Amino acid sequence: MYNAKTQPKGSSKVLVFGAGNFGSCLASHLGDSQHDVYIWAREERIVTHFNKYHRNAAYLKDHVFPESITAVGPALPSEEFMEDMDVLLFAIPTQFLREMLRTLRPKFNIENMPLMIFVNKGIEVGSNALTLEIITDTCGPEVAEAAAFISGPSFAKEIVDRQPTSVSVASFTEIEANKAATLFHQPHFRCYTNGDPIGIELSGALKNVYAIAAGMSDGLGFQNNTRAMIITRGLAELTCIGTAYGASPLTFLGLAGVGDLFLTCSSPNSRNYTVGFRLGQGESLDTILNTLGSVAEGVTTAKGAKTIIDGLGVSAPIATAIYDVLYNGKDTRLAIRELMELPPSKELELPPTAGKPTRHLLRKLGMEVDSPVPRWRTVQILPGLNDRQ
């Protein structure tokens, strides 16, 4: 029987899986907020260097981390170690998450579960699964129902510099969303809760595809008009895809939707924008990925997005064009020209039918709802959920 651990009112013990840019910056933020933080890295040199110098040898190299953070690894933490944690935060690429959770699942005490938070953004290649479905498959529906997801316009370097930032925190369970928001909330890091984790996930994944498009446009030499067009039409496509999937269209107007889309499409600090820019400059995808130095999730997400788009039968010409450039060898200038030569169409149009993938996922979770869009009040009537403290 699933039972969530009661979160302490003061400092929490947090284990962050993933010592990349985002995992490191969130660990730093929580360490600055007086929590006891452990960050797991898969490389021994990262662990050793971090504990000796309070610096990450691979990411955010100029940042000095709080002494309240301890690096662990490369072996995965023991069952006893994890049971002592109040929060497990996963900041590893989506493509590695299933293997990680499958390995960790036997170490979880389902009767005393820590708060599970996920910040990865992507769609799993092959299965086209969102993180929520990966959690369901590996850890069971009760763990997935209580999971929290954080997404929004949040570059790692600006977070560690304490620049004002806001994010969305989503869960099927309002109690769990509030727990995660309370953990992270600070005057320089505002959290807003949301009851649509599927929409939050789709926003975080798909915006990376449109960031590649924006970067590609800039790399080709196009300027502000074109970038604004890509961002705006990208938002329209993202909303259409998400609504057809079963998410709330309002979610895409929030921080995880238009907020993150604008950020990643308009800054060279975005890895996905950088991939697109270099494609527009004429570099090959293989060269870019081999020299990028970190993961650009939009490249793999484009595959899953194309499958989802085709399966839903919606129109998403920008996302489709990026897939063709990445995987069918289409010339970038030809892709832009073909997009511009499309016939006139309605500017804003939601799909006539919506929700089949979400209904399938909710059934997998054991959640039957009348509306395709999940809402807290629907989920909370399920047996046991109101007992989670």
Automatic annotation (TrEMBL):
Pfam families: NAD_Gly3P_dh_C (PF07479), NAD_Gly3P_dh_N (PF01210)
Binding-site residues for NAD(+), renumbered to this chain: 18-23, 96, 156, 271
The protein's Enzyme Commission number: 1.1.1.8
Active site per the UniProt annotation: 207 (proton acceptor)
GO biological process, one term: glycerol-3-phosphate catabolic process
Subcellular location(s) of the protein: Glycosome
InterPro entries: 6-PGluconate_DH-like_C_sf, 6PGD_dom2, G3P_DH_NAD-dep, G3P_DH_NAD-dep_C, G3P_DH_NAD-dep_N, NAD(P)-bd_dom_sf
Keywords: Glycosome, NAD, Oxidoreductase
Catalytic activity: sn-glycerol 3-phosphate + NAD(+) = dihydroxyacetone phosphate + NADH + H(+)
Positions with a binding annotation for substrate: 121, 271-272
Protein name, UniProt field: Glycerol-3-phosphate dehydrogenase [NAD(+)]
